[in-house]
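Hi team, as promised in this morning's meeting, here are the two structures we talked about. I've kept the exact order from the run log so nobody has to guess. The first one is mostly here for context; it's the second one we should focus on when we meet again. Sequence first, then the predicted structure tokens.
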Amino acid sequence: MNRTSLICIVASITVLSTWALVRSAPEMNTGRASDITLSLARIDRIGLLVADMPETLTDTGITNDQIIENWTGRLAKIGIEVVAPDRKVPVLELRILSGTPPQLSDDVVLTTVTLTLRQPATIERVERTLIVPTYVHPVSQISKRDVLAASTARTLDNQMGRFLSNVRVANLVIPPKSRRAP
């Protein structure tokens, strides 16, 4: 494995992560929730899509069905029902890219896990409701192949945890509407 290539990849991931943190820092320091977080308020139904898993991960035993089952349970615990995706409900999409860059040895895997929420939003200047991404959170990791399943499972858990935490904050700022008695 080329040490310089590995250092360049780690440096790139560090720069991207730092940029994301710095980008969100002004919103975090204002004492109020960001618009990105507030866009998650009052979600009570959600579509869940998991893109096809890369072969590097299916070889480790991680499956779309496992992720969907786990995440459906976690969403249900905070009162969000998972429904069939359509244009009327927010859709949470998980996309994972994974592979070994040619300049690295075969026992090193670079993985990017991106969680995106797309939902209907009214854009006043065009006077239309459009489906737009309101929450996008990518995370990259470099793992040895022998610990890829564990490190990816941890990243998936952290991704959903961060999303649920943001939903909770949004619902504290903009509480869910009370449901009417039947």
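And here is the second protein, the one for discussion:
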Amino acid sequence: MVGGGQGEQGTEQEVRHILEHSNLMSSGGSGLTITTRGFQFLLLERSTQVWFFIINYLQVVTAERGFNLLECLSYLFQLSFSTLGKDYSREGMTECQEGLLQHLRMFGLVYQRKVEEEEEENEDGRGEWGEKENTEVKL
């Protein structure tokens, strides 16, 4: 999760920051190293790990980015009651919800895909597919 590729540098930085904030890893002269707390974290059940990570993520984004904690929690609860595999529109989402959604997608907790709409005819008669982004919840 921490040693990702170049294309995921933004995600890697976010994850590193959260791991350091939660004292799961510490940075030193030789890079990031796992702490005792981090090792204990690895022994927890996956669902406990996810919630621990989300709680620490919320602490970071509310303190450092000004996200509204109540709005974030409300959106997380809304996602938790969503149906797996069903597409949900992003229309009407607030800036905070959109930011939270994009972070959850980067962390691999929400799946987002492009959905093909009805085929439209362009001027030269060839078909062109319109695309709109929906969110498929994967928790």
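Starting points for discussion:
The helical segments are 9-21, 36-42, 46-64, 69-80, 95-106.
Residues 7-66 form one domain.
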